[in-house]
Backbone:
């Protein structure tokens, strides 16, 4: 995996609470057998009108959203289905980080394994970000800090192992494989 | 030894390596269930890396999401929704052949929705760790297993190493005091619970369902409850095994036999939270307060008693959900017109669910404008239902009787709810667009769904007297 150390971008806001993974990538696009190309269907049913044209009102279709790599979302982002297609779609759509006050367990685990930095911040910081759409952020993954344009900073916590894997570009399957002896001895004893 | 929870016991027994502040635990997986949608990229990774499947015997595959529920055509062709869906199924077949994994293919008499067939076959057993690239893997926790959904990367981890990197979740207890009233179903109970604790109420936790109200449930009902744990954000739901569990498992094709059964049973009987075991959070539910419950909004925590009014909550999110659903705050939810009714899914696609729906439909007709789909959860459920004549009851009422699969719950196989139409569905998610773009979903029990099909609107199944039957 490519190391992910710093992310520097404007934010784009999807303030709705409980954005589920069906919303991020509808099930009808899950018949794919690859990871590629899901970005064009990210938030499909919000991004496009029923005639297939982009909805200009939807925040991700507005000019100011173009090139933004940090998604600030409402509480409980990524709830519902375990589909890893959700982080694949977000990455393919250009996102590198998602920030919320709460991120659903399976989505967070999936995101971090793909280099999409899923960040949980405290409620006051979350409210601040929701009040400042398009703010320029510098995320320091190793340091666990988000720097604001005015020099202000706030911290975020990230599971130590997930952070280590992101920063060093560690492949978690490779990590598991290095425990072959322990797995084998477990299997001989119990399995 | 200190008092341990059921979660502690299963967790401890599966530790290949304990967690530390800097590394997660390595957890051994006893059973890996695989389906066509969340596995192809994982198998592709294994091929790229030149890896084999470490434990094919602990891996069982089936096809349930992308497959049509219409029967095979006269010319022998299977009516897939798109060539891509067919390709996905073919890929599953090729991967299983290549990696030596048992596949319950579309012509297999044991095939069905992955969370229905695991228990049916008896591959789901107490004390196991069970995973699948599917969030409703929580279903299997009804047997006292630690069962949870994983992503495709993790599917690859388990295929290659039979292990997962996991932080231990918190232990949450939901104590159900007293028993459910007559006419109230397990689906009503779990919708009520999610309404109480919220769609993120279980985030970071495994829920153990306990108490008299849980003990009194059948295995099928327990599966319905555990199935929807993820809708409260929980990693898993679990119920300690007891006589009900053993009676259900005994004589299943793939449970241990003879002396092995006796020793398994002895081990399983120890699988319960010890007296005094500490939970991170305890929520008490009074079973007597649970009434037939339906969802009214766009997530499974937005629920209301079927005889109550759509709640008034003064926030934009709530209003947005009501606008999407075409409902008005303060109006009775009963009487809301219904276009479609779906009975099926891993939540409510088992024989007892079909019986509950058939009991309401027997001798009655669907309201003129209502379309109803009944999709058995497995080939075995379908056979058993047909043996009892349930299919004839459904057909006589005007419902469609389909082949097994996930169908309209996830709406990726061609079975979907048209835009703006309202479906009463026994499935598990009422998210915007879940059952099709613009589809409106009301989650309900099989009896409530059947009652809605007959009344043509959301209806209390308990109020459905003979006078409402259509002659």
Residues:
């Amino acid at each position: 995996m490519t190391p992910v150390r710093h992310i520097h971008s404007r934010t784009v806001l999807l303030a709705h609470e409980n954005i589920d993974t069906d919303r991020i990538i509808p099930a009808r696009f899950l018949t794919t057998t690859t990871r590629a190309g899901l970005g064009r269907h990210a938030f499909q049913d919000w991004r496009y009108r029923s005639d297939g044209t982009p909805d200009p009102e939807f925040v991700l279709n507005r000019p100011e959203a173009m090139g933004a790599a940090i998604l600030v979302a409402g509480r409980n982002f990524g709830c519902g289905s375990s589909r890893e297609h959700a982080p694949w779609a977000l990455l393919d759509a250009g996102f590198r980080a998602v920030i919320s006050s709460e991120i659903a367990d399976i989505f967070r685990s999936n995101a971090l394994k793909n280099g999409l930095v899923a960040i949980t911040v405290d409620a006051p910081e979350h409210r601040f970000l929701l009040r400042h759409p398009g703010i320029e952020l510098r995320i320091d993954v190793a340091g666990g800090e988000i720097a604001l344009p005015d020099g202000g900073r706030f911290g975020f916590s990230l599971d130590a192992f997930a952070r280590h894997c992101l920063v060093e570009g560690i492949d978690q399957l490779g990590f598991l494989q290095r425990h072959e002896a322990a797995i084998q001895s477990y299997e001989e004893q119990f399995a | 030894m200190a008092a341990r929870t059921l979660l502690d016991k299963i967790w401890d027994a599966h530790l290949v390596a304990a967690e530390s502040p800097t590394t997660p635990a390595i957890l051994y997986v006893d059973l890996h269930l695989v389906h066509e949608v969340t596995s192809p990229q994982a198998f592709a990774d294994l091929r790229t890396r030149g890896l084999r499947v470490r434990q094919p015997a602990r891996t069982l595959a089936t096809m349930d999401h992308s497959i049509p529920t219409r029967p095979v055509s006269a010319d022998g062709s299977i009516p897939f929704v798109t060539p891509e869906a067919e390709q996905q199924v073919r890929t599953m077949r090729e991967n299983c052949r290549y990696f030596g994994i048992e596949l319950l293919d579309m012509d297999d008499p044991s095939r069905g929705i992955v969370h229905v067939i695991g228990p049916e076959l008896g591959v789901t057993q107490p004390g196991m760790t069970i995973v699948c690239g599917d969030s409703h893997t929580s279903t299997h926790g009804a047997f006292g297993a630690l069962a949870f959904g994983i992503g495709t990367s993790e599917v690859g981890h388990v295929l290659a190493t039979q292990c997962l990197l996991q932080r231990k979740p918190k232990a949450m207890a939901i104590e159900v005091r007293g028993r459910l009233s007559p006419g109230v179903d397990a689906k009503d109970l779990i919708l009520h619970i999610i309404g109480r604790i919220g769609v993120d109420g279980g985030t970071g936790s495994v829920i153990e369902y306990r108490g008299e109200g849980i003990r009194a449930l059948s295995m099928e009902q327990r599966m319905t409850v555990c199935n929807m744990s993820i809708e409260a954000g929980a990693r898993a739901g679990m119920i300690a095994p007891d006589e009900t569990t053993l009676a259900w498992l005994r004589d299943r094709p793939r449970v241990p036999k003879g002396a092995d059964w006796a020793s398994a049973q002895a081990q399983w009987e120890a699988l319960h939270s010890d007296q005094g075991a500490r939970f991170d959070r305890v929520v008490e539910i009074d079973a007597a307060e649970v009434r037939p419950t339906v969802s009214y909004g766009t997530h499974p925590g937005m629920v209301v008693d079927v005889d109550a009014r759509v709640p008034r909550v003064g926030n934009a999110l709530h209003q947005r959900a009501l606008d999407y659903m075409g409902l008005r705050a303060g109006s009775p939810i009963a009487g809301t017109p219904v276009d479609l009714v779906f009975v099926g899914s891993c939540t409510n696609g088992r024989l007892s669910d079909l019986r509950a729906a058939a009991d309401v439909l027997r001798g009655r007709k669907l309201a003129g404008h209502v379309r109803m789909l009944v999709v058995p959860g497995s080939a075995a459920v379908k056979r058993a239902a047909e043996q009892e004549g349930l299919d004839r009851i459904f057909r006589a009422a005007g419902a469609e009787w389909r082949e097994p699969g996930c169908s309209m719950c996830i709406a990726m196989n061609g079975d979907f709810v048209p835009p703006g139409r309202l479906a009463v569905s026994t499935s598990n998610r009422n998210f915007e667009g879940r059952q099709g773009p613009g589809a409106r979903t009301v989650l309900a029990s099989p009896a409530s769904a059947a009652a809605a099909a007959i009344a043509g609107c959301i209806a209390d199944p308990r109020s459905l007297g003979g006078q409402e039957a259509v002659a």
Remarks:
- The mean pLDDT of chain A is 96.
- The helical segments of chain A are 21-24, 44-47, 85-92, 105-113, 123-131, 160-168, 172-177, 180-189.
- Residues 180-189 of chain A form the longest helix (10 residues).
